[in-house]
Amino acid sequence: MVDFSGLAAERLGGADYDGDMIKTVADPILNACVRRNYDLYRFEKHKSLTNQENIPLLMIPAAEPLIRDANDWEARFETVRSTFSSRVGQICNAALDRSIVAYNENSDAEERQRYQEETELRAILTGLEIDSAKSGVRPDLDEYLIYRKVQRTPFLQYKNLMEQAETRRAWYEPTHRQRLKAFFEKTDWAQVAANVERLPYLARQLEWHTPAAKAKPAADSELFIFAQRPDWKEQLDRDILARIDALLRDYAACLSRIQACRAPIRAKRRKNDIERILFSRGQEDAWDTDELYAQLEALPPERVAASLEALRQEGWQFLSPDERERFLLTWLPELEPLFDLFSDFRCGGYRILGDLLCDIHEENTAQERKQLVRPGDSPAYAAMMEDCQREPRRYWEVAASRCRALLEEIVKPVNDVRYVEALGRRNLLWELLLDALEPNVLEVPYVE
Q1: CA pair distance 333, 253, nearest whole angstrom
Q2: SS3 state at 224
């Protein structure tokens, strides 16, 4: 909480005394860097206000609240729009661009002085922009945001690349991996002096030079009492071992099928390929890919599967123009308005029909695969899946509970540990036989 007797709220540039929560940096090295990079003479006039350190005091000017008529719908709309159109992020990015230069020891002294003032000015504007949600008075930020006077820092370039990683791109645009590679190659990191800007480069170097951790499982003899004899696996009952192996496979299949059925269907994987062909032929405005998919999705699933198989059997890509029309009349007569599009093989156009049929067939097949219970499932699998369907939110615990009960029907729980370990399924011991582990685990002597 901000102390009412201090100047912390003013120093934070926007905090007040109504319960604002703040985070402070107590690292002496970071604080020393901040203090060292400020020109003390600029804050001589504030010595009477600061008892210990000459950290800059930024005063956010107060603005009289703009009173609006609650019965005026235009005023209400303007208030809501102003509230949700904050440009705090943009002004903060502009301040960071300048602060990289302003507090870099390798920068020119005059340039540092100018950018320090611009950084502090943008800090004040940030406070005004935040307060505008309450007061309704917004500062004019156009002259500070429209004209870029400082080159975008590598840190913000990297941040922008990472934010665009999940956005959908056109087929002719470079991938996220290619953009990231180009960014690191075009930047001369030896000339980057600010540590904040070097963070992406250091993180990438750390990733490249950090070897992946390799699991080193302990030997059976180091963990279990029953494994002290070298021939302990030969003493196990082969019939019981086979039954437990089958049960564990059913348990893994049950969990795997539930997870697979819950995964979203990856639809229209070949849509970019169709758009590329239309773009190459100058037809991107004449044909809408979503409309093409919609027309073929109206076909019954068996018709789609049969047409796709006929496409493969008759070698669609090798058919002459007359043969193409005859093929389409035979298998897809209801799509006659699209015959010219499908029969146009320019720029790889033979792929359009195949891409559409493949994507739609995959969606139809995926829907069929999203069946938890299928013909041919074993009784043990059916029992576990039945319990999971009753409690879908706890399916993992429910499946493990039923599997433990089925294991007890085969052999005693204490002996189950031996069979599970002999099958190489040590990771399942903590899920299924946690209570039975203690009697089988070696005691490690305590060493001071």
Answers
A1: 43
A2: strand
User: b/e for 106-136, b at 16 or more Cβ within 10 A?
Assistant: ebeeeebeebbebbbebbbbbbbbebbeeeb
The two structure tokens encoding residue 266: 């990856």
Q: What are all long-range contacts of 347-351, with beta carbons under 8 Å and residues at least 24 apart?
A: 347/277, 347/280, 347/281, 348/277, 348/280, 349/277, 349/281, 350/316, 350/317, 351/273, 351/274, 351/277
Tokens 């090798």 locate to 318
d(CA 400, CA 90): 51
- Block residue for tokens 């685990």: 441
Q: Tell me the pLDDT tens digit for each residue of 205-260.
A: 898 888 888 888 888 888 888 888 888 998 889 999 999 999 999 999 999 888 87
> Token pair of 92, please?
């903060």
Residue appearing with tokens 């001589």: 44
pLDDT class for 42, splitting at 50, 70, 90? very low
Do the Cβ atoms of 86 and 138 come closer than 8 Å? Answer: no
Tell me how far apart the alpha carbons of residues 246 and 229 are, in angstroms, rounded to a whole number. 26
Please tell me the pTM assigned to this model: 0.47
Asked if 94 and 152 touch (Cβ cutoff 8 Å), the reply is: no
